[in-house]
Amino acid sequence: MRTVDELIAEGVRGRRVLMRADLNVPLDDSTGERVITDDGRIRASLPTLQALREAGARVVVAAHLGRPKGERDDRYSLAPVAARLGELLGVEVPLATDTAGSGAQAAVAALSDGDVCLLENVRFEAAETSKDDDARGALADRFAALADLYVDDAFGAVHRKHASVYDVATRLPHAAGRLVATELDVLTRLTEDPQRPYVVVLGGSKVSDKLAVIEAMLPKVDRLLVGGGMCFTFLAAQGHGVGDSLLETDQVETCRRLLAEAGDKVVLPVDVVCAEALVADAQVKVVPVDAIPDGLKGLDVGPNTVDLFGQHLADAHTVFWNGPMGVFELAPFTHGTRGVATAVAAVDGLSVVGGGDSAAAVRQLGLDEDGYGHISTGGGASLEFLEGRELPGLAVLSGGAG
């Protein structure tokens, strides 16, 4: 797989480079303005973007935001992203008026060496996510007409067979961006020869979302620590009542089987923080996991669980953490995620934060990002890689044109 630095060494000055980036940032529009609440993914795109600019490339950035239904929807316009990207780069970043039409053509034509423009949301085009190869191919042809070279730096989208991720790479000489190369290196270290003890921490709401990665990783890890809403299905599998906590009844038998197969590898919470309702001023009660009252919801792991998980993390040399321990967005339920995140950061070895809500929690809780070996932007892509699945965006970078 060729890297962007190899591409740069071959010479990109004056050449148009289509760079697929992952700029799918969270927005708050409660005040009537669309405000970016976490610019981590934009900042993660900067190393590749700056390297191309400094080498004199004319950079055309393609990205998606949210899930518009294949047509223009200004709620999902990349305008706030263009503004923030410009602030971080210290230059104006024009936003094309469309994705791959006359507006995009005009924006690209106006570029000089070292300039950057941003195409409008690629998901405004229905063909971007189409299952029809011909439809995606036609859009990829339009993307390819805007550029001479293609760089994929959107690791968070490499598990998608989309026009701007997969099909365009079959039409242009291509390379992996620095972020994609780093993600691939780190995740390969997690799967092929991790330094032990190797501990995985999984949270989030649903077992069903993480089932495949649990199945794939259990044989490889020394400990699997389970928190978040998904822990209650495991606790139910042990015979505990879970009150009004989140429960996937159709996964209880699966969790029972996993616990039987895993032996002492799976570590579950020993106490939880409960409340009647998920509100910012909730009155909370900390209870053992075998005494969750009817009518209360478990919304965070408790202090004894944080201590327990911390003990398992203390001697680890490789850690992968994906998913918060509770509803960290609300103050009464932040302590579990903060405590586990702090323990992960203290690991003497490779600590990997697996993107998505985990990365958002690190930033929202004001933790030092430099305390972690790697904060992934991957989310679902990271999990699918760890499951051992082939990711279309990576597979195409390893072959085809270029």
From TrEMBL:
Per the record, the similarity remark reads: Belongs to the phosphoglycerate kinase family.
Q: Which domain of life is it from?
A: Bacteria
Quaternary structure, from the entry: Monomer.
| Alphabetical list of PROSITE patterns matching this protein | PGLYCERATE_KINASE
Pathway the protein takes part in: Carbohydrate degradation; glycolysis; pyruvate from D-glyceraldehyde 3-phosphate: step 2/5
| EC number, UniProt record | 2.7.2.3
Q: Which residues bind ATP?
A: K210, G298, E329, G355, G356, D357, S358
Keyword Transferase tagged: yes
Question: Could you say which residues bind substrate here?
Answer: D22, L23, N24, R41, H64, L65, G66, R67, R123, R160
The protein's matches in Gene3D superfamilies, at most eight in alphabetical order, are given as:
Phosphoglycerate kinase, N-terminal domain
Give the gene name: pgk
Q: Which EC class does it fall in?
A: transferase
User: What is the protein's name according to its record?
Assistant: Phosphoglycerate kinase
Q: Enumerate the UniProt keywords alphabetically.
A: ATP-binding, Cytoplasm, Glycolysis, Kinase, Nucleotide-binding, Transferase
Q: Which InterPro entries match?
A: Phosphoglycerate_kinase, Phosphoglycerate_kinase_CS, Phosphoglycerate_kinase_N, Phosphoglycerate_kinase_sf
- For this protein, what is any one GO molecular function term? phosphoglycerate kinase activity
Quote the subcellular location field of this record: Cytoplasm
